[in-house]
Design brief:
It is a single chain. The protein is α/β, with parallel strands linked by helices and 317 residues long. It has two domains: 194 residues, NAD(P)-binding Rossmann-like Domain (Rossmann fold, 3-Layer(aba) Sandwich); 99 residues, UDP-galactose 4-epimerase, domain 1. The chain is 44% helix and 16% strand. Strands 3-2-1-4-5-8 form a six-stranded parallel β-sheet, with helices on both faces. It starts with a strand and ends with a helix. The structure holds 2-amino-3-ketobutyric acid.
Length: 317
């Protein structure tokens, strides 16, 4: 990995991943790819090259890949689960037609490609506890349909054309830099912002609904480590279960209250998000990632909570 294009560089993952990779390879071109209306600003803009890179515009992508001699593409363009339910055709267009554009360019230009999958690639028939690496994937959401198709298409391009595609199934990601937009797991980020600001949190997910979650530094490490992994050890490619913690809103509220006594939360359950959340696993088994590329998270709920509160106090107060 030397010249890298991060598509979706101003999003929740992209904004931090681009900066991490720039720090890792200062001698390379790490291009912050964006779409109109979501241009990079500040440090992201000033610390390296930026280029318009819309997944739905193959010619534009090819131009960027050629100009910067790109060898690795991080494809982070996606509509998250709740938004994708409102705009299913657009979600398919971005997530699948866009991925096709990227894979074709990668095939002709010898690029490795990372396109994340998600806990959203599972559905109600999937075993909920210790969800195996290889299991039933029959999601009921459009987001999930695109994620399963992403896994299949990425594996297809690897087996058929030798494109070096690799991926992880991200849990809900919690970060203090860029807010997520339109996901089912967003509550687990928003709750920290409310708690630090001293506001009551209105939770859209019902008590007792468990989902895998992960702190952003671990997610970024996974995205980098999988692309740097020794290919001869990889039995799987698209896509690996990775896990670090699983909780429901009550457990998260109790943990935050240990650090911010008096924090208040009430429920106003959003039926769309709740139905999606109930179809996702409670907790994935990530033993294949641990065995094949030494995946190991650093943060548990306590470590993440201390760090989130500290960072948000500096940012918001
Ligand atoms: C979402 O909630 O849609 C995402 C995800 C789990 O992939 N955060």
């Amino acid at each position: 990995m030397k010249n890298v294009l991060v598509i979706g560089s101003t999003g929740q993952i992209g904004s931090e991943l681009t900066m991490k990779i720039r720090r890792m390879i200062p001698e390379g071109n790490v291009v912050a790819g964006y779409i109109k209306g979501a241009e990079p600003k500040g440090e992201l803009l000033e610390s390296g090259p930026a280029a318009e890179a819309d997944v739905c515009n193959g010619e534009q992508l090819l131009e960027v890949v050629k100009k910067y001699d790109i060898d690795t593409i991080y494809n982070l363009a996606a509509l998250l689960s709740a938004v994708a339910e409102r705009k299913p055709q657009l979600a398919w267009h971005i997530q699948i037609d866009g991925l096709m554009n990227i894979l074709e360019i990668a095939r002709d230009n010898h690029c490795a490609v990372f396109t994340p999958s998600s806990i959203g690639s599972f559905g109600p028939e999937t075993p909920r506890k210790d969800t195996p690496q290889d299991t039933i994937q029959r999601p009921r959401s459009m987001y999930g349909c695109t994620k399963v198709a992403t896994e299949l298409l990425s594996d297809y391009y690897f087996h058929k054309y030798g494109v070096d595609t690799r991926s992880v199934r991200f849990p809900g990601l919690i970060s203090n830099v860029t807010l997520p937009g339109g996901g089912t797991t967003d509550y687990a980020v928003e709750i920290y912002y409310a708690a630090v600001k001293g506001e009551e949190f209105v939770c859209p997910i019902a008590p007792g609904t468990f989902m895998d979650m992960m702190y952003m530094p671990d997610a970024l490490k996974a995205a980098v480590d999988i692309m740097n992994a020794d290919p001869s050890r990889l039995i799987h490619r698209n896509s690996f279960n990775i896990a670090s913690m699983s909780f429901d809103p009550e457990i998260l509220k109790a943990k935050i209250t240990e650090h911010i006594p008096g924090f208040k939360m009430r429920y106003e359950v959003d039926p769309v998000r709740q139905a999606i959340a109930e179809s996702w696993p409670d907790k994935m088994d990530d033993s294949c990632a641990r065995a094949e590329w030494d995946w190991k998270p650093s943060y548990d709920l306590e470590g993440m909570t201390v760090d989130m509160i500290d960072a948000l106090r500096k940012k918001l107060l």
